[in-house]
Amino acid sequence: MTETRPQLRVYDDTRALFHLPEGVIYLDGNSLGALPLGAAERVARTITAEWGEDLIRAWNTAGWYVQPRRVGDRIARLIGAEPGSVMMGDTLSLKVYQALAAALDMVPERRVILSDTGNFPTDLYMAEGLITTLGRGHALRLVAPEAIEDALTEEVAVLYITEVDYRTGRKHDMAGLTAKAHALGIVTVWDLAHSAGALPVDLAGAGADFAAGCTYKYLNGGPGAPAFLYVAPRHAERARAALSGWMGHAKPFAFDLGYRPAGGVERMRVGTPPVLALAALEASLDIWDRVDIAEVRARSIALCDLFIAEVERRCPSLRLVTPRDPASRGSQVSFAFEGGYAAMQALIAQGVIGDFRAPDIMRFGFTPLYIGEVEVVRAAEILEAIIRDEVWRRPEFAVVNAVT
Amino acid sequence: MTETRPQLRVYDDTRALFHLPEGVIYLDGNSLGALPLGAAERVARTITAEWGEDLIRAWNTAGWYVQPRRVGDRIARLIGAEPGSVMMGDTLSLKVYQALAAALDMVPERRVILSDTGNFPTDLYMAEGLITTLGRGHALRLVAPEAIEDALTEEVAVLYITEVDYRTGRKHDMAGLTAKAHALGIVTVWDLAHSAGALPVDLAGAGADFAAGCTYKYLNGGPGAPAFLYVAPRHAERARAALSGWMGHAKPFAFDLGYRPAGGVERMRVGTPPVLALAALEASLDIWDRVDIAEVRARSIALCDLFIAEVERRCPSLRLVTPRDPASRGSQVSFAFEGGYAAMQALIAQGVIGDFRAPDIMRFGFTPLYIGEVEVVRAAEILEAIIRDEVWRRPEFAVVNAVT
User: Fold this and answer.
1) Where does CATH 3.90.1150.10 sit in chain A?
2) Pick from A39, A92, A245: which is nearest to B271 by CB?
3) Of the candidates B293, B365, B162, B56, which has an alpha carbon nearest to the alpha carbon of residue A31?
4) Is residue B237 pLDDT above 50, yes or no?
């Protein structure tokens, strides 16, 4: 922890703490965050000094064993979670699975999982798999995002949604939906993939039951960085750990033949923690510990507003699909455009990196720790030229070969 | 791949490719393998050049997306698996869970999972969790390791065991048990945690159905290195992916709302792969690619035989619990001793690192890539003095504070 170190001003102090390649305007930090300069050294230390010198002893001497919880507490501060309520590990797909399984277990008499068509597909796929494994006739009910509030009924067991839509950036009202859900006896599972590090989240204040998120987007933890899982303290001692691995056992090193869950969120650990990945993430959290998320949010809103204004003025053929009201969106701006895939390839070829989501969405993420107004205006200028001059119609941008 | 590079002689050529701390004799590579010298540089390159410079583009440019399968093929060679049959990711707990779920699905009319009391506890815990989620009255039947063959009956759905016992080093007959299981309509799931990199495994030859293992032990992939999952090609197109994440979808980047499994073992991917951890593992595989596993096994047998002979001669109060017959054991030697915990602490204090498993097992792993005869004899000498002089009775070695 670095609580005694002075707070960092967003962008003015933080920009210099990230590596960004020459000639690149990076508007895809909502997919993979940029590299914190401290990450390479931090991971090298873990490899050389901890693994190399301490070997197996490093589970104690370097604190590897307690790292998933210690890092969880650093994430907790950014998402309004109580200390000791967040556990790191695995991937977001697995963490939403654990959360959904525990949530369904709390409402055994109901059979409907309510989600929306703006949820990220892996959440839906994992739910499908769980429903099949459970074999008890659960149904995954999908409605349009704007219909989710009205779809909350006493038939619903679990509300299972992503706060910020990965495609449009539309943001759900977590506090309002959670309150309505609870009034109807519904348990909530929130996916914070596009929320954590993008905007203030107040899990405790909203009374959320379960939440999960990844750390490689706005939190800049690196490719394949571990996920986090939040269990409200009021549920943690009862929540069933469906993926009941030894690290979540009450006494992992007793090597008992029978499973007994550890207390609290510790039971949501599964196997051996990803030590190297957690080390990279800690380098990023050294920055996050010293940043005010409210300041990040204010900057993010200003950047998104500026980009919307610049693009709408310069490129009338692009249609904004992100809510114009800052309170209803996350930290990304998406435009629909028929030549969206090709236009994004043309942008990338000119150093402006956003991404594309089928069928026609050009997606731009705004990460105020390392993106400022100058880059936003310049990106809009380059986009304008690509649309105006029909650069995107060139054959080299038409080939679909991307994994992004 | 490095197939054109000359083969390495075990120990004579490979010892210099690992870092081992001054004054340490490391006999715990069966828990966490030693650091390959190339790992730090390899991970630094992934962080600085791939993540830092290529950012999101590195999923294509650096091959991150195909890495889990490419690395799986490098592991396949070491475990006698067909190319394209091994997938990397997650942890061993999760991979045995996926394997068990798929195996049970193939035998829907039976309800018994057969395992033994020498299986690693997390395998048993994950099975308990799966049984509860399934809710269809499955039972986990545990027998003593030596009783496993007789316990194979037509009631059994899945034989679910670890080939080499983590405590005693006793090795099951994979080919024999698999053949008998198949004759009775039983599907097999093999945990190779203490096999991969320790001895030749022949999954294809044995006709194994599913197998999983970790890569941080004999394979030297580093703390929290990813696990692997093997699915026999004859099952791969039908096997149900219970943890049905988007990376195992037939078209992950179509972002369909409904799940459709990818072909083959690709469906056993779950979420975003652990890129940094896979990079560290690849540095270790650069060595493994050039080593003959039969030569490793011959060296391992010689080292274990030597250690047994030295310790039995010097320390008559220790009782060998590992099979004396090399064909019946892995690459570790365990002794039971009433003061085992304290004696291991005393050994570690003198630089001989093994580990302890309750209730009274002193465990020593032999990893021929970086351990030779000199270290084995010296370790036995130090152990002799600790037992003879009753060093282990000193109060400083009595405190139980270990996470090992």
Assistant:
1) 15-30+292-397
2) A92
3) B56
4) yes
